[in-house]
């Protein structure tokens, strides 16, 4: 049985995560503990549950209640995921849901979920596969859509983990997790403080046996299909933000700079598109 709570308005404090707190406020809501985030749609919610995230509550529009609960129950049954138990499920009318910012983009149920403590960089790298690991590093990638798309490509194309500088967009922001189709809960990832990364990020990778490949255009750039890259036992693929790209220090200290060969007159791709091609070539795909 589900714990359904039918509401007549959106004034209750339990609805703050959905109505009155922005994503930055949700991030800090439970300090010093990790905060909250919003997962959107039954598919994304189920993948979060499967990954071990705990829900604080759900919010569902009444007209799609049966559909969304059926989808959630089915996914959890198929994937042997723990059910919702007595988690509060707030049910609201279509008129009330229109009061939410961005309601036109909603894809069904919303869930306020508890964040988990991310591992240190050392502990994170220690969990990577021992054979031919491939990780991606996102340096100052501030667009949530790009972050979500990169995670989706990482999940599909054999990237073992993602390291994100703290000045990048949060993978658990609604837009990022929605674009990723919930793969932000599938691919292991952690943060590295942006200042720490700039001071000694490449050195830290080297300490754990990783060589780094910075995606950038320089005189010594090699193509992503260069055979020497496949021979590297542990490889970190570093991607930068739109426009500025990677910082000069990151490029200068990396073991390789790599590029995607382009047709005449075009010098680069969007970082999400570039990541897909790089991961296709350098990731641990089963059919490679």
TrEMBL record:
The keyword Repeat does not apply. GO terms for molecular function: RNA binding; RNA methyltransferase activity. Pfam families: SpoU_methylase. The keyword Transferase applies. Keywords: Methyltransferase, Transferase. InterPro entries: Alpha/beta_knot_MTases (IPR029028), Ribosomal_eL30-like_sf (IPR029064), rRNA_Methyltransferase (IPR051259), SpoU_MeTrfase (IPR001537), tRNA_m1G_MTases_N (IPR029026). Residues 135-279 form the tRNA/rRNA methyltransferase SpoU type domain. GO terms for biological process: methylation; RNA processing. This is RNA methyltransferase.
